[in-house]
Amino acid sequence: MGFRYGTAANALTKTIAATPNASGRFSATLSGLAESTVYYYALYAIVNGKTFTSEVASFTTLDSSVEPIVNQSWLELPAAMEEYDNLYVNTLYDGSTRNYTIAYDKSRYTTYWVAYALNSSHMGSYSRPDDWSYDPNLASSYQVDLRSASYSSYNNGAGHSRGHLIPNASRNGNQAMQLQTFYVTNSVPQIQNSFNDGIWSALEGALQSIARSEEIYIVTGTALQTVGGSETISYTTAKNDTKQVPVPNYFYKVVLKVNKSGSTVTSAQAIGFWFENKAYSGSSYSSYAVSVDEIEQKTGLNFFVNLADNLENTAESNTSWTSFQSF
Predict the structure, then answer these.
(1) Does 67 score more than 80 pLDDT?
(2) 279 domain residue, yes or no
(3) Which range marks the domain in which residue 107 is found?
């Protein structure tokens, strides 16, 4: 199995073998490509002497002088989802400074995850903005109008609020980056009382506290249902819109710490948190700590793939919040 590729759809003159990963997916890494160039490719497989070839697809290489939409070397970035072709996957910047990467389903008006680094430079004392806005990088027809009001299921502090995936307080040290957390694509329907304003907020505060002394890497996401699950998905609308928005059944965070020698990661530790989208008594989030491995099994996603395999395997098996804190 492998790929044939080239700079013309009818002239796939180069070939590279594809190798399987642990999940059984095949991939190949290309090198020596020209910048700002369209490349065409097709997958081929030889089975019992017979060759099968896929349809031709294409990609365009980046100009190195332009900040990338996604850089596969970022530690916080999950592995690509099979559905990426149907998603809005983008990285928001303040100039050349990376803010966060988002995976948003344009057809369902929901965000699956945001991924971001967090350190002391991101946090400060800018006041919380009053209003939300559309993401200017995406047509407003693909977004829900939450600019001046929340979801229709939000009533006097109860019901579903505009739940940030990357929180305001994790970017209030940079006003431009803070305003990008108020894009409506960074909002999902989240139970407000005793969840968003309780245990979830407490967890966000704990991670912000850690990040004041060291950089950490976070993916915050939603699950409409677990992989293979049969949970019923409910829907709501925005007060100022008629688009049907799915209400996540679950919220999660996965968090990574690393030690480095120069640019090389020498050790790593990770932790995950898994919550139903419901009200909780108290704000003790530590009892909801789970391994990143478990969240991968629930969601079908693959996190922290840019770690060396031995570091990733050890880090993602940890279930102890205390061990993560003291790493």
Answers:
(1) no
(2) yes
(3) 82-326
